[in-house]
Amino acid sequence: MIANSIDAKIALEEAREEYAANNPKSRERHVEACTVLPGGNTRTVLFYPPFPLTMVRGKDSRLWDADDHEYIDLLGEYTAGLYGHSNPAIRAAIEKALDGGIDRGSQNGLEAKLAAVLCARFPSLDFVRFTNSGTEANLMAISAARAITRRTKVLVFDGAYHGGVFSFAGGGNRINAPFEFVVASYNDLDPTMDLLQRNTKDLAAVIIEPMMGAGGCIPADKSFLQALRDATREHGIFLIFDEVMTSRLSPSGLQGRHGILPDITTLGKYIGGGMTCGAFGGRAEIMQYFDARQANAFPHAGTFNNNVLTMSAGLAGMSIYTPEAAEQLNARGDRLRRRLNDLVKKEGVKMQFTGTGSMLNVHMCTGPIRNPAEAAKADKDLADLFFFDLVAQGFWLARRGMIVLSLPNTDAECDQFAGAVEEFVATRRPLLAA
């Protein structure tokens, strides 16, 4: 690791310089990409200066970049890579699907089987329909709520992320879908209830992640979720749980853990076994609007909604991620988060780890974090420095500090990561003084 610096900005610049020197082939790949992709990128979250790493292969819980550096993968494709990079059962399922023909343009039988697994797993689902991403699932859920209720507004939360056209960090994304959004503060009960009450006649839906993922792995208070459930039910507003990420945090998602059922649930990420996937579903009386046997049913198109690769891989994956496997993985994550928080508390540094189960996020600050506004008080330079220092030690995580355990991650790898965090604290202590 590079020598320490008393100034965070100087230390960060030094870390970036060392990173650039150690990754010349990734730099070359980035320069080449910039000739055909704006900024050399087609997925914004993966970009960071001076240039992003190019990963060229993966196996189990490991990744290798273009310069042949090896990493322990603690990002898990932002929760989608639950099964690691080379699960033999998923590979066999994909190969079998390929043998049967890739694009059939028809029902294939697998979509009903995967739907049955999801309806059995998540208590709010009577019926489900598939999409190609969590973004698309949320778009369909919100659009259905607006069409059924014949209301126009949607209550969302500051700092929330529900997909590429539903991003509400920093005042909202300029290319968000053109719906009328009412923005509340996450976990802030009284102002949220007041805002909801003032808009009851116009609100079609409230959409919320039971734990914010991209917003910093910030869990919602159960009492907050219950108050939303009670108020939306009273006023005929649809409650949508975005469990695209959080559905993996217990055998039946956070809705099952809390015993609070939404009207519509959206899913994605890992349910496709590592393939492109999304889904939305809910009560029978809602989902019947998509029943094509009925006159005036809502149309729901999508060439690849039921593609055989996703359906086959998803079925294999859900058979691997049993309730027992979910309990074990999330218990491992809880142990790691407690261990890391005990470490930074003992060392007296401005650093903490939020999250639930197998999803964690580091924040360079002290004090409670109950919403993104409180998380925004953290030191961003130190967060970047943490990313570059941990990459230099051979750990792959999100630049924003998100850490996700996947099934191939072992207790030994968690021990290694805890040791790397301890080394970061020891090396950067002058910068981390609380």
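[next item in queue]
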Amino acid sequence: MTPFALLTRRRLLGAAAAGAVAAACGGGSGSPGSASQGSGPPGSVTSPVGTAKSAATKLVGDVLDFELQGPFKWNGGSVKMKLHAAFVGGQKAYFVRTDASEPQFAKSEGLVFVPLLNGALTAKPAGPGQIYLIADGAPGQLPVLSTAPGAPDFVSLYVLNNVRFTAAKELLDSAEKVRAAAAAGRVAIEATKIVVNYPIVKWPGGELPVDTKIEKPLEGGPLLAKPDTEKLEVTFKLHQCFPESRYIVTDTSA
């Protein structure tokens, strides 16, 4: 099995740190096997002992708020995360940040360090997409993504590229424009080997679905409310796995 196949399987089956299933916060510091207890029913599938919210540790810096167990019919909670805007194909998309393949970058950005993501660099027949971070760009400039849901080459993994202008600044809103500017010598692209997992929440023509019934963990959709593109916030269902980890599902392709 190729490294990319392993990554894909991990995303869909629920490993709690990478791909479309991303760790959001760790468990409490209480006894081994302790679980969340909030406004919902006490106890959990994995353990009977409750953990206070104050005992939980955020693993992802973009977590704004969370409840370990909400008032839901299924045993789970919620997590509010910061949204990031980007351009893709001349339009806007919005994503959350969860993991990175390089330890120093992960630490500086408040992401989970996942060495397994490096396997995407040699994946066949296609690897990760590209994200272009444009320093000191024109007014309104956002990061640029090379792919988004609906594209045949879409995957939520991207390789980081740092872009700087060498001529007059211009707004670059697509990967094609970035590459054309580089070919013409107007910008310089510094490619890295850092792979990041930046799942797309809202994209041109679609967005992750909202669960309006909130009766089962994997039905209805991974969101509890529509993405707020003005406040740049999004609220996910928060799931629990042993031992005392919480994660979000950011892919509904299964």
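[queue empty]
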